[in-house]
Structure to design on (338 residues):
């Protein structure tokens, strides 16, 4: 186990599937944007802004900080910054989410906003940073009509970097919304977009059931509270559903008191297809390699398990098929001891 250093994990080819632009850029970028816009910080010292009691406090902070970027250039520079961070962690491919509902002061229509995010990613890839593709998120707070309108924009754009529809937000606050959004997800699927859904974090197992049965997603973001329903865990294994798990995010936002009691080990042991992710590496001040190193220490995972986690991340990703094949081959050939 001694070989599982951050450096080893950086060399291991892998994808990150659960990362939000909304919380993935650097803390310094947020502070600089506030200064540029003459907006007083929410709390002083700046570090105090990054202490949250729970998901809701965190989402409220996002609403504040994401009011700062106003134009396409600022937005593109933030998505560029995320792609660069991914390169530093040795992430070969990223499915990045962005949730437009938070970016209230962007001066332009939704399609300009999405195009700005995408252009930062395209510029980054051109400069040699790893490929990052985009999932556009609707919010659990949206009405069905608002969600359809976001999808309308995505479909009208036909942007090659926009590959999936996603949903996030606080389910504990709004209750069950599977029925509300099922027709929107159905339309996205029919149009050939990938789909993914946050569930089983601010919702219990019922949110995961709704995500797989009503939204019909193969990819659940978090999904960890599935362990509260053994029948659900069996179903997830049976159907080969991917759970894109973010252990540190769950501890940081108060879902579990520690890594030791986090249910990821139970899910892996049950045979669920689990991946490791940061959720918001910038604001959570963690790296993907830390997630791998800490998990292998805390759960005593062998290199076989770590290789499987990396493999699963690539299998589950929305990356182009030739890249998927290439990454899987290099994961299989990876030498943990070199
Ligand atoms: N949006 C950003 N992060 C989120 C999380 N952890 N849960 C639900 N919605 C989110
Ligand atoms: Zn998330």
């Amino acid at each position: 186990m001694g070989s599982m250093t951050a450096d080893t994990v950086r060399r291991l080819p892998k994808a990150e599937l659960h990362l939000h632009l909304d919380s993935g850029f650097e803390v310094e970028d947020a502070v600089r944007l506030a200064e540029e816009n003459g907006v007083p910080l929410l709390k002083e010292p700046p570090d105090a802004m990054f202490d949250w009691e729970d998901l809701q406090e965190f989402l409220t902070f996002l609403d504040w900080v994401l009011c700062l970027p106003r134009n396409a250039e600022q937005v593109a520079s933030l998505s560029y910054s995320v792609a660069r961070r991914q390169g530093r962690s040795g992430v070969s491919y990223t499915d990045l989410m962005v949730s437009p509902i938070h970016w209230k002061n962007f001066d332009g229509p939704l399609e300009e906003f999405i195009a700005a995010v995408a252009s930062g990613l395209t510029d980054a890839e051109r400069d040699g940073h790893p490929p990052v593709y985009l999932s556009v998120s609707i919010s659990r707070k949206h009405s069905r009509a608002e969600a359809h309108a976001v999808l309308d924009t995505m479909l009208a754009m036909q942007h090659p970097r926009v590959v999936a529809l996603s949903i996030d937000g606080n389910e504990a606050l709004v209750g069950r919304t599977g029925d509300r959004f099922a027709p929107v997800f159905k339309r996205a699927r029919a149009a050939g977009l990938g789909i993914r859904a946050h569930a089983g974090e601010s919702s219990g197992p019922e949110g995961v059931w709704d995500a797989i049965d009503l939204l019909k997603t193969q990819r659940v973001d978090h999904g960890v509270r599935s362990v509260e329903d053994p029948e659900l865990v069996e179903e997830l294994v049976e159907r080969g559903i991917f759970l894109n798990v973010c252990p540190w995010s769950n501890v940081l936002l108060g879902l579990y008191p520690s890594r030791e009691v986090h249910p990821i080990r139970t899910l892996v042991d049950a045979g669920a297809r689990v991946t490791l992710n940061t959720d918001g590496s910038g604001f959570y001040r963690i790296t993907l390699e830390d997630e791998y190193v800490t998990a292998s220490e805390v759960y005593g995972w062998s290199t076989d398990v770590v290789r499987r986690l990396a493999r699963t991340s690539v299998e589950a990703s929305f990356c182009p098929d030739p890249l998927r094949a290439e990454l899987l081959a290099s994961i299989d050939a990876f030498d943990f001891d070199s």
Q: What stands out?
A: The mean pLDDT is 96. Residues 18, 20, 168, 198, 221, 279 surround zinc ion (ligand 2) (CB under 6 Å). The first helix runs from residue 6 to 11.
